[in-house]
UniProtKB/TrEMBL annotation:
Protein name: Monovalent cation/H+ antiporter subunit D
Provenance organism: Stutzerimonas frequens
GO terms, molecular function: NADH dehydrogenase (ubiquinone) activity
Domain of life, per lineage: Bacteria
Keywords in alphabetical order: Cell membrane, Membrane, Transmembrane, Transmembrane helix
Length: 499
């Protein structure tokens, strides 16, 4: 048994617990411990990605309780990819936080580690109930991180976020209970086998449970009409927290892919692809509504939060295609959108620190201390997120548009994606002109901290890496999509065969 599969859980678990128990440690010691633990996840995730790239499905049974009994972790190409994206994003975000943002409240680094525990666990678990458990871990940590720094604005946004997600957790538990009551298992591979052999009379109840899960994942993933909590919550969070939250919506989308390709996928009989008819219109409506929100935004952080929702709609469109090419395009765009969104949230904070009391409000303000440097970084991020060449956003959207067959759906997707890209470009151009060109007075504030700049440019550099390695990455994404759509290795987990 390869024990490396459980290390992405053990490292943040024990680091977070140590930081809580040793709360009397000095600030520098806590920062060092948190940085070492977070960045150690990067080589670990790379190693797991190399292991997963051979196409073999690896299962880790805790306590040697074989599936479908006990707690099971499952590593395939998709989970390994998500672990790596999370590790890179978290590493740069915590580096940024160590320059002062972690001082705004107690136990920041412990909460940060528990957040990583929940996220990594959600990507690795092979059990639906444990997916609920890891969702709760990451949500409880995110509640505290969202309120980190205090302030009336954060408390108000945090209350909305908490109430909606508690409602989502209740629906999740109801859906899981229905599946367990009908099928007697919550192991995902075992559920896939039992759904296909279920009594047709139980079909409506199984469908109801599946739709409940879709609602929960849509809430976590910020899909229309359940995304209204996101702009205010992300805009009110501190910069490193908002950057880490860029992966949070992807957890919901990951759950949609995992559950509705495995449990309700090709082998589910009468319930095969039961949500496909819903995903396509929801994707286009989410994308369109988010672009309208971005055009109406009067604050840079709110604008960036709406761009996160735009990426959700784009990703959901690729997932809704249900094809290997569509999934591969969505996965490439997922990596791009996560890294660029994190970088832009950090960059917005750098801009706010040089605008005085006006912060990120999109109104005329004193000139920045470093308009050329920050303006260049903003230009790179804006071009990339809007989907213009030569950056990774362009390649991701191009792959998505090429993945759809000619027809009415293709016309709708091309229209929404291209018009939406134009809308994002207009919104970002307006924001850039107000921040960098229309100065009302001499420069104020201090120059950007070098470490904060390093963290921001490190994430932005990810767009260039995605372009430089586009060929190998596209091959890997296609292999990942093919693995997701081939259910035989997953079903062998509970059939006594080797994965």
């Amino acid at each position: 048994m390869n024990h490396a599969l459980i290390l992405p859980l053990l490292v943040p678990l024990f680091t977070g617990a140590l930081l809580l128990f040793a709360h009397s440690l000095g600030r520098s010691s806590k920062r060092t411990l948190s940085l070492l633990a977070t960045w150690s996840l990067v080589p670990l995730a790379i190693w797991l990605l190399v292991l997963a790239d051979d196409g073999q499905l690896r299962v880790y049974a805790l306590g040697s309780w074989q599936p479908p009994f006990g707690i099971v972790l499952m590593l395939d190409r998709l989970s390994a990819l998500m672990l790596l994206v999370t590790a890179v994003l978290a590493g740069f975000a915590v580096l940024y936080a160590c320059r002062g943002d972690d001082e705004r409240g107690p136990n920041f680094h412990a909460l940060y580690q528990f957040q990583l525990l929940g996220i990594n666990g959600a990507f690795l678990t092979g059990d639906l109930f444990n997916l609920f458990v890891f969702f709760e871990i990451l949500l409880i940590s995110s509640y505290a991180l969202l309120l980190h720094g205090h302030g009336q604005r954060r408390v108000r946004s945090g209350m909305h976020y908490v109430v909606l997600n508690l409602l989502g957790s209740s629906l999740f538990l109801i859906g899981v209970s229905m599946l367990y009551g009908l099928l007697g298992t919550l192991n995902m591979a075992d559920l896939a086998a039992r759904v296909s052999a279920a009594d047709p009379a139980d079909g409506p109840l199984l469908a109801a449970a599946g739709y409940l899960l879709l609602v929960v994942f849509a809430l976590k993933g910020a899909i229309l009409p359940l995304y209204f909590w996101l702009p205010r919550a992300y805009a009110s969070a501190t910069a490193p927290v908002a950057a880490l939250f860029a992966i949070m919506t992807k957890v919901g989308l990951y759950a949609i892919v995992r559950v509705f390709t495995l449990i309700f996928g090709n082998e589910a009989g009468q319930l095969s692809h039961m949500v496909d008819a819903w995903l396509w219109p929801l994707a286009l409506l989410t994308l369109g509504a988010a672009v309208v929100g971005a055009l109406a935004a009067r604050n840079l952080q709110v604008l960036l939060a709406y761009l996160v929702v735009v990426s959700v709609g784009t990703l959901l469109a690729g997932i809704a295609l249900g094809s290997e090419a569509g999934l591969a395009a969505a996965l490439y765009y997922l990596v791009h959108s996560t890294l660029i969104a994190g970088a832009l949230f950090l960059l917005a904070d750098l801009i706010a620190r040089q605008r005085g009391d006006l912060g990120t409000d999109l109104i005329t303000a004193p000139a920045l201390q470093q308009p050329l440097l920050l303006g260049t970084l903003f230009f790179i991020g804006a071009i990339s997120v809007a989907g213009l060449p030569p950056f990774s956003g362009f390649l991701g959207k191009l792959m998505l548009l090429r993945a759809i067959e000619p027809g009415a759906e293709a016309i709708a997707l091309w229209a929404v994606v291209l018009v939406g890209g134009l809308g994002m470009l207009i919104a970002l151009s307006r924001a850039g002109s107000l921040v960098f060109w229309r100065a009302s007075a001499l420069a104020q504030g201090h120059k950007a901290d070098p470490v904060r700049l390093l963290a921001t440019t490190g994430l932005l550099f990810g767009s260039l890496v995605l372009v430089a390695a586009a060929g190998p990455l596209q091959t890997f994404m296609q292999a990942t999509a093919a693995q997701l759509l081939d259910l035989r290795p997953y079903l062998q987990i509970v059939q006594g065969g080797a994965a």
